[in-house]
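Minutes, structural biology subgroup

Action item carried over from last meeting: produce the structure token record for DUF6728 family protein (Imperialibacter roseus). EB confirmed the sequence was re-checked against the source entry. Recorded below for completeness.
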Amino acid sequence: MANSENQEKKESTNYFDFSEVFKYYFRKKDPNNKPNFNLRMMHGINKISILLFLMALIIWTIRRLM
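Output recorded by EB:
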């Protein structure tokens, strides 16, 4: 019984785990890897879309609570 409760707590905390997002934004550049222009643009667009999604989620949550 206690094991299932611990697993439920772990699953619920995983929904609000934004560590992967922070790792994506604040990782060090690999000096051995020289990405081409297309790859840099793809990662730039991905970063912009993640930020827009998080902003929209925050705005939506604030509007729902008011």
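Discussion: The mean pLDDT is 79.
Next step: EB to file the record with the rest of the batch.
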